[in-house]
């Protein structure tokens, strides 16, 4: 009997490279903390699509539903048209398993040099709670008169009261477990329909159920400014899907690079598996060079272990990453190879 069944989806580009390092670390954590996993690898992504014309068939999707968690590298490759793998695999999983929270910490570790001059770790420690199943990602809209001079393309944002309320509730709970402050990020001055639904629900929940949590609102353009100039403003940030996607790459830059940004696609109800992956993509520009930074993938593994209740193993990862980043210095994309970083993390988790 294994404790946790985990599906491993390396995906494309640097995805399999960084996930391999995460699995190396996991091997050692199992021994150190006395738990077991059964891991099943799935070869999904660009290569499979090119060979079979299939991205993710229904039978595989249902098989994945039976796991306790999914550990994913990255998907998307230049030799497949944009969107085919991204929508057909990654978004399909997020939607099918109703992983309505995308949990993305933004934290500057001691010793890491942020491109923001003078930024210190005490000033940069927050979490972005990104709505993960709605907005423009729902795919509503289409092309009228495609290819003609009269073409009109629309891409609508879907926001349901149910969807907005549940992710806001999660974010309020997060704030309660941290420093007690929640910031809604939106664009209510332009997106008046969706914005009103988000704002009213935010205010209502705050007044009726979470009056112990202080709250404020920041437009998404200003949020980009404050992420860089005043990250200490934030404790928990909650936002809709597309804004959350964009601002978390900015968050990654502020905390030292794409190689340091982790995420969890969560179904807090635990009816279906949650999925853990770095924020970054398949990085075709460095795939195969052995230079991808696996730290984000290992941090995502830490999120997964915490979600599975392996708190001691998750804590080992957090400590090891802290030590590694302190001794390595600089930022993501350092002088060390992918495997060297993984090997060092294996040593450090054992301490
Ligand atoms: P990207 O995140 O792959 O790369 C952006 C930049 O960051 C590149 O310069 C890359 O070299 C660098 N980078 C990313 N991860 C790194 C790491 N671990 N170590 C060092 N440097 C790293 O974004 P992109 O170039 O816009 O997209 C490439 C492909 O990935 C596209 O097909 C896109 O759709 C896909 N994508 C997938 C995911 C995902 O699977 N969750 C996320 C983003 C993009
Ligand atoms: C991410 C990625 C995905 C997103 C893409 C690949 C669909 O950018 O996980 O941040 O937009 O959510
Ligand atoms: Mn993204």
How are the elements arranged and paired?
Layout: E1 4-11, H1 15-33, E2 37-41, H2 46-52, H3 58-65, E3 69-74, H4 84-96, E4 101-107, E5 125-131, E6 141-144, E7 152-155, H5 161-177, E8 181-186, H6 192-208, E9 214-219, H7 220-229, E10 236-239, H8 241-254, E11 262-266, E12 274-278, H9 295-307, H10 311-328, H11 338-349
Parallel strand pairs: 1-2, 1-3, 3-12, 5-10, 8-9, 8-10
Antiparallel strand pairs: 4-5, 4-11, 6-7, 11-12
Organism: Egicoccus halophilus
Cofactor: Mn(2+); Mg(2+)
Pfam families: Iso_dh
Helical stretch tally: 11
Q: What gross morphology would you assign? A: globular
Q: Give the total of beta strands.
A: 12
- Strands across the major sheet, in which order? 2-1-3-12-11-4-5-10-8-9
State the low-pLDDT regions, or none: none
Question: Helical content, roughly?
Answer: 40-55%
Structural class: alpha/beta
Ends: how far apart?
28 Å
Q: Give the C-alpha Rg.
A: 20 Å
Q: Describe it for me?
A:
There is one protein chain. The longest helix is centred in the N-terminal third of the chain and has 19 residues, at 15-33. The protein has helices at 15-33, 46-52, 58-65, 84-96, 161-177, 192-208, 220-229, 241-254, 295-307, 311-328, 338-349; strands spanning 4-11, 37-41, 69-74, 101-107, 125-131, 141-144, 152-155, 181-186, 214-219, 236-239, 262-266, 274-278. The chain is of the alpha/beta class. It has a ten-stranded mixed sheet, sandwiched between helices. 42% of the residues lie in helices and 19% in strands. The protein contains eleven helices and twelve strands. Keywords: Manganese, Metal-binding, NAD, Oxidoreductase. Residues 5-345 form the Isopropylmalate dehydrogenase-like domain. GO terms for molecular function: magnesium ion binding; NAD binding; oxidoreductase activity, acting on the CH-OH group of donors, NAD or NADP as acceptor. It comes from Egicoccus halophilus. InterPro entries: ICDH/IPMDH, IsoCit/isopropylmalate_DH_CS, IsoPropMal-DH-like_dom.
